[in-house]
């Protein structure tokens, strides 16, 4: 799988929802059945830096739709409303069954637009 760069804009105090389609080939022509796979996503202040949000906690919810080859990501408004940072970096990895390599499928920069109306 070839990772895709997508810069993720977040409006503080709003839900964030997006779907990542997983393909079996670099040409993005054949969907990958990811039944039984897992996914992990982190947002850090910079690559290798401090974790700002993590799917292994309640910060980010990742749901696998295996037959459709999809990872659905959700960050609740209740979480984004607590973000005091404005820039970061993230990536999303999928993990196949045992002995299957781990792949980065999505990565990029994150920007938080501070909430104006409260």
Helix content: under 10%
Domain count: 1
Got a strand count? 9
What can be said about the biggest beta sheet?
Answer: 6 strands, mixed
What average pLDDT do the residues reach? 93
Tell me the distance between the termini: 42 Å
Rg value: 15 Å
- CATH-assigned homologous superfamily: Immunoglobulins
Per the CATH scheme, the topology name is Immunoglobulin-like
**Helix-and-strand structural type:** mainly beta
Can you tell me the CATH class?
Answer: Mainly Beta
- The CATH architecture would be Sandwich
Q: What are the segments in which pLDDT stays under 50 over at least 5 consecutive residues? A: none
Number of helices: 1
Descriptive overview:
- The protein is mainly beta and 118 residues long.
- It has one domain (4-113): Immunoglobulins (Immunoglobulin-like, Sandwich), CATH 2.60.40.
- Helices cover 3% and strands 47% of the residues.
- It has one helix and nine strands.
- The strands form two sheets. Strands 1, 2, 4, 5, 8 and 9 form a six-stranded mixed β-sheet that branches. Strands 3-7-6 form a three-stranded antiparallel β-sheet.
- The longest helix is centred in the middle third of the chain and has 4 residues, at 77-80.
- It is elongated.
- The termini are far apart.
- The model has no long low-confidence stretch (mean pLDDT 93).
């Amino acid at each position: 799988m070839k990772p895709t760069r997508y810069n993720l804009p977040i409006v503080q105090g709003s839900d964030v929802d997006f779907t990542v389609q997983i393909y079996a080939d670099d040409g993005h022509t054949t969907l990958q059945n990811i039944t039984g796979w897992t996914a992990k996503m982190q947002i850090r202040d910079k690559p290798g830096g401090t974790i700002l949000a993590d799917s292994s906690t309640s910060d980010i919810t990742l749901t696998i739709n295996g037959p459709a080859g999809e990872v659905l990501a959700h960050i609740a408004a209740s979480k984004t409303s607590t973000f005091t940072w404005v820039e970061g970096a993230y990536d999303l990895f999928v993990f196949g069954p045992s002995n299957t390599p781990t792949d980065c499928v999505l990565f990029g920069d994150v920007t938080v637009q501070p909430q104006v109306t409260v």
